[in-house]
Write a structure and sequence with these properties.
Helix content: 40-55%
Mean pLDDT: 84
Number of helices: 10
Largest sheet: 3 strands, antiparallel
Strand content: 5-15%
Length: 188
C-alpha cells in the first residue's frame, strides 16, 4: 500500500473510531513523520493533467508512454514515472480492442451446403497419429460419411501424403455407397 493510501487510512481511523494519530499510525504501519508530511503539489499539476486528458481523448489507443513522448516533444519537462502516475490517477487506460462483429448477410459458403442431406453427400476426413513400440510414427486416415456416420475407409500407414489421400478418396471401396458390398469390404 502506498504512503498516500496509508495516510488516508489513518485519517479514516481517526474520524470513525476517534483514536489518536499515534495509535492509528501503529495499526496501519505508517510512520508518524510520513503521516504529517504533506506532499508538494507542482504548480503545473492541473495543466499537465488536463493535457493528458486531452491527449487521451484525441488518441484513445495511446498509452502513457506515447503520451509522455508527445509531452516531451511539446516542451514539457517531465519524468516518465510522473507521467505514468498521473495517467493512472486520471484513470486513462487504453480500452480493450473489441472483437470483430460477425458479418450480416449471406456467406459465400453457407452452412446449408455443408450439411449432409443424403448418404454419400458429404464426407469427413480425419487424421490421427500414433506411435508403435519401437518409437516409429503411424498415421491413420479415416473417411466418414457425414449422413450415415459410417466409416468408408480407414488407412493405416507410416506415411500418408496428399497423393495417398486422394488415392484413398478415389478408390472404389471408398466411393461405393454405404450398404453396398464394396463399402462393406472397405469397412471390415
Amino acid at each position: 500500500m502506498s504512503p498516500s493510501r496509508r495516510r488516508r487510512a489513518v485519517c479514516m481511523l481517526q474520524d470513525r473510531l476517534g483514536i489518536s494519530e499515534r495509535r492509528a499510525c501503529r495499526y496501519v504501519g505508517q510512520h508518524r513523520s510520513t503521516q504529517r508530511h504533506v506532499p508538494p503539489v507542482a504548480v503545473d499539476e492541473q495543466a499537465l493533467r488536463a493535457e493528458l486528458r486531452r491527449i487521451s481523448r484525441r488518441r484513445p489507443r495511446w498509452g502513457y508512454r506515447r503520451a509522455h513522448q508527445l509531452l516531451l516533444d511539446e516542451g514539457w519537462q517531465i519524468n516518465r514515472k510522473r507521467t505514468q502516475r498521473l495517467w493512472r490517477e486520471e484513470g486513462l487506460r487504453v480500452p480493450q480492442r473489441r472483437r470483430k462483429r460477425q458479418r450480416l448477410g449471406t456467406s459465400t459458403v453457407p452452412a446449408e451446403r455443408l450439411r449432409a442431406e443424403a448418404p454419400d453427400h458429404v464426407w469427413a476426413l480425419d487424421f490421427q497419429f500414433d506411435q508403435t513400440a519401437d518409437g516409429r510414427i503411424v498415421k491413420l486416415l479415416h473417411v466418414v460419411d457425414e449422413f450415415t456416420r459410417e466409416a468408408l475407409a480407414i488407412e493405416c500407414r507410416r506415411r500418408i501424403d496428399a497423393d495417398a489421400t486422394v488415392a484413398v478418396l478415389e478408390s472404389p471401396s471408398a466411393a461405393a455407397r454405404p450398404g453396398s458390398s464394396a463399402a462393406t469390404t472397405a469397412r471390415s
